[in-house]
Amino acid sequence: MKLYTYFRSSAAYRVRIALNLKKLAYESMPRHLTRGGGEHRQPEYLAVNPQGLIPFLEDGAAGIGQSLAIIEYLDEAYPAPPLLPRAPVERARVRSLALAIACDIHPLNNLRVLEYLRGPLAQDQAAVDAWYRHWIACGFAALEEEAARAEGDGRHLVGSDVTIADICLVPQMYNARRLECDLAPYPKLREVSAHLEGLEAFAKAAPAAQPDAV
Length: 214
Ligand SMILES: N[C@@H](CCC(=O)N[C@@H](CS)C(=O)NCC(=O)O)C(=O)O
What we know:
Blueprint: E1 2-5, H1 10-21, E2 27-30, H2 43-48, E3 56-59, E4 62-65, H3 67-77, H4 88-102, H5 111-118, H6 125-149, H7 164-178, H8 187-197, H9 200-205
The structure holds glutathione (GSH).
Glutathione binds at residues 9-11, 33, 38, 40, 53-55, 66-68, 102, 110-112.
């Protein structure tokens, strides 16, 4: 298996966690997101992934983009350990929390969005940082409330096993800390993330542990 990745990409971080949880070996194919205008924008990478985003997984002849599609593929093709609960309501709850992060928080703070704010919209760095923190705060406030209702055990967002919701949470917490967001209002999210970050599969997937970390 080959994973096109970038050490700081939180979407790739999700996939690295899933691969590690399932103990799947993979070759890391780093593509730097800012060097030379972004290696993910080069024709060579666009030929691999026309969406021009990181991550992208190759498993034999199959190529898959979009982190949640990749993770669900891995969960179906390599079922142990499962990353979704069995009960339909719990599966939906896990997906709802994962999507709240992957669709409603992360895209607003993606590199190309921040570049558009800085470039065509002529916003200074202070305004861009305020934008970033605003969308984290909006998303995390809802997630903290949801975490209280999701009946997690305090170490996982839902239930007592690692799920795709947890896999999305930890990289988003990493982003929030990197941008010095105030995390004091989210004790549940902090508690769950602190536990998960101590697990080997999460620690090995962390940005600082990647071969392309600079
Ligand atoms: N929804 C996509 C998001 C992928 C994505 O946006 N990746 C970021 C890195 S975390 C990226 O490639 N950004 C490049 C850019 O914004 O130019 C997924 O979950 O895989």
